[in-house]
Amino acid sequence: xxxxxxxxxxxxxxxxxxxxxxTLNRPEKRNAVSDRVIKALAAAVDRAQEEAKAxxxxxxxxxxxxxxxxxxxxxxxxxxxxxxxxxxxAVFDRIEAGKIPFFSALHGAVVGxxxxxxxxxxxxxxxATTFFALxxxxxGIFVGGGASVRVGRLCGVARMTDMMLxxxxxxxxxxxxxNLCQYVVxxxxxxxxxxxxxxxxxQNAEMSNYSIIHALPRxxxxxxxxxLFLESFVASMxxxxxxxxxxxxxxxxxxxxxxxxxxx
Length: 264
Ligand code: 1HE
Known about the structure:
Order of helices and strands: EEHEHHEEHEEHHHEHEHHHH
Shape: globular
GO biological process, one term: fatty acid beta-oxidation
Strand order of the largest sheet: 1-2-3-4-6-9
Family: Belongs to the enoyl-CoA hydratase/isomerase family.
Strand content: 5-15%
Protein name: Vanillin synthase /trans-feruloyl-CoA hydratase
Keywords: Lyase
CATH topology of the largest domain: 2-enoyl-CoA Hydratase, Chain A, domain 1
Number of domains: 2
Largest sheet: 6 strands, mixed
GO molecular function: lyase activity
Radius of gyration: 19 Å
Distance between the termini: 50 Å
Bound molecules: 3-methylmercaptopropionate-CoA (MMPA-CoA)
Number of strands: 9
């Protein structure tokens, strides 16, 4: 930590209606994730779960996130390294499997731990300047913030292996093709776009959102038979909530909006 940084908010938190906006704010270090950043991010994530119905994570400056703060990493003993990695897992798990959906708004470098953070969010919106990379192999280290579990599941083990062995960078368009992000938007537009999506998700029934973010990844890890069995129980629970009754009736009495073709 530099002296000029010690009294600064390295993670900003803002509540915009029902959407919490969490901003990595260490632009001079390209939002590299130090121990202080992890603690501040954990606090912001916990606060969002209590106050908001959806949240957006973004970064200030030229890049979303340059990953692990390499200046801190060199000083760790092996056991400190394990605890450090587990501390990242703890906060990223709270993002992936908490109370509310998380969206990430990506631009510039989304690399190493930055990609691990983005992969913990449910929807990734990349602007045209975004590039993804896992440079751990070239730095003599290994992923430690959950990439071997999350990034491998998103883009496939073969592509992740390629990223790690060759250190290649992947553009936003290629990243969408590889499932590293779900949306690609114009330069500088990711944050507003992600907030808009988060606002839409915030309108869903809480039980539906909770079921989506918790049941889908679990079902993905189960056998087909177990997945279908769990699905029936989640579906029945969600459908019997008062919110479901209200929303189904709104459709039937024609007060709910109709779906339409995306081009219209
Ligand atoms: C950093 C870091 C960092 C920048 N840790 N200080 N991550 C990486 O291997 C990515 C390393 N970073 C880069 O490749 C580039 O910095 C970027 C492509 C992200 C941005 O480039 P650029 O030209 O805009 O910035 P810069 O001039 O390289 O960096 C500006 C400052 O940020 C500079 O410090 P300064 O004091 O000389 O001004 C950099 O040293 C500093 N900086 N990135 C520390 N990562 C749980 S395991 C996860 C494992 C990983 O994440 S490994 C991947 C680490």
